[in-house]
Write a structure and sequence with these properties.
Layout lengths: L1 H15 L12 H22 L1 H5 L3 H14 L10 H11 L11 H16 L19 E4 L3 E6 L20 E7 L5 E6 L1 H14 L9 H12 L4 H18 L2 E5 L7
Antiparallel strand pairs: 1-5, 2-3, 3-4
Length: 263
Amino acid sequence: MPELAGLQREFTAHIRNPAAVKTPPGIESRRMKIYNDLIYNNIEGFISGGFPITRSLYRDEDWHRLVRSFISQHRSESPYFLEISQEFINFVMQEYQPSPVDPPFLLELVHYEWVELALDVAEDEFPELEPGLAADPLVNVPVISPLAWSLAYQYPVHTLGPGTEPDSPPAEPTYLVVYRNRAEEVKFLAINAATARLLELVRDNSAARPSAARTGQVLLQQLAREMNVDSVTSVVDFGATMLRQFLELDILAGCSQPLATGG
């Protein structure tokens, strides 16, 4: 058994980095190359499929150098091929040392592409809510969908690609909602800072105890106070339009009935 364990370590070390680790003794190089190519091509295929925009920004040799670094350096926590994308983003964000050929927005772009994939396979479901309550999110309690993620980036990640590769981030951050609707489609919506804050208030409110949950109007009044605007009414009117749009897009799952003590 010790000899078998040693052979297995040599075998896997060579597969991880065949350029640096010799073929284990007693194994024909031709046969070993079959294993090398099979494993590398499978992993590289999953990563290229999960991060197509990132892949499009690299020359072949630079891309394969990045993937080989992932295979040789990262110790995956999951044995499942479907979770390779999660392992790859963990590697890029926590272990990888960027080189001059990497775009400055690499971390944000791989995160954005991973979010799209993660929402596509997420097992969360829309909660059962009374349909009629969604007609007026101001007097009822708006409930955010578990399949809607509000995100902020330095770079406009939803516009990046060949020919659109900024060297530095713009003055204003990018706010996005990436969501999966009831038709099982993953989509995104570009928003501003105030709308991102509104979604944050809705999310926190959705997780609150029923007795503490507040109506959409109360949430918008809080937003107006935070923004220190002269006209609370204008914020409420604008926010009401946004809440109704979020309901139509399935960013909000619906509304629940406020309790007597819920504001």
